[in-house]
Amino acid sequence: MRILVLLSALAMPVVAYFAQRGVFGPDNSEISARYPTLLVAAGYAFSIWSLIFLLDIVHGVRQLRAPWNQDPLLRRIAPATVIGFILTTAWMPLFAQGMFALCLAIIFGALLGLAWVAVQLSDAYEQGGEHRWSWLAISLHAGWLSLAAFLNLAQSALAFGWTHEQAQLVPSLLLLAAATALLLWLNARMHGNPAYVAAALWGLAAVWVRQSGSELAGSDVTARVAVAMALLLVVQTIWLRRRARRVALT
């Protein structure tokens, strides 16, 4: 299983490389242009995948080396990690083919698995500072998926005809509320995880940038809501980290 962790980590950037060159069909930017939503992020935001993929590979290599190859936690999280990595890989060619329903199941499945792994690693990291690189890698991956899954849902809703291009505000606000609830809950469960929050903040900033310059009805509202979400996450993280330090001193 540990070898599968590394192989699945390596598969993600390889498939991403071919996806961005149109091997599987239109790339993400072309599909986003077809289905413009109030939750789409500026294109530069997706560069975070390069860092996530790199750190995931670091995690894959590290958990194969001594003494970590005997670590019970890394052994326990390996199956969920493999599933999360494989689902992340599978999403890319399927999205290019416009298989939105399947992509939704896949991205939320990847989020479920990697969020659980991030919680396990955060608990260990908080208790003894162990698995720093693995914690960083999976926290960033889970943090980005926690927002990206809802962006994907908004785009799929438009593709399915559930929403209209010029009447997306209410459903978009509901999706942002759901994303906020998930982000705050997982961040609280991880006692204020700065890596997890950093990935979400990166995405929210990109939503603000894109929607600030959008001509879609309601884009100015979603841009401001994205800023409010970011501020709320920052305030929560500061409060959680201070509380954790107070608990550690008692």
Query: What is the count of structural domains?
Result: 1
| Total E-strand runs | 0
Provide the succession of SSEs.
HHHHHHHHH
* Separate helix tally: 9
Helix content: over 70%
| Overall pLDDT | 91
Major sheet characteristics? none
Rg to the nearest angstrom?
A: 18 Å
Poorly predicted parts: none
The proportion of residues in beta strands is under 5%
Shape: globular
Q: Compute the separation of the termini in Å.
A: 40 Å
- Structural class assignment: mainly alpha
Element layout with pairings:
Blueprint: H1 2-20, H2 28-34, H3 48-62, H4 72-96, H5 100-128, H6 132-160, H7 169-189, H8 194-212, H9 219-249
Keywords: Membrane, Transmembrane, Transmembrane helix
Transmembrane segments: 40-61, 73-92, 98-121, 133-154, 166-186, 193-209, 221-240
Please explain how this structure is put together.
Helix 7 (169-189) packs parallel to helix 9 (219-249). This protein has nine helices and no strands. The protein has helices spanning 2-20, 28-34, 48-62, 72-96, 100-128, 132-160, 169-189, 194-212, 219-249. It starts with a helix and ends with a helix. The chain has one domain. The model has no long low-confidence stretch (mean pLDDT 91). It is mainly α and 250 residues long.
Please give a quick description of this structure:
It contains nine helices and no strands.
What features would you highlight for this structure?
250 residues, mainly alpha, 9 helices, 0% strand, transmembrane, transmembrane helix, membrane
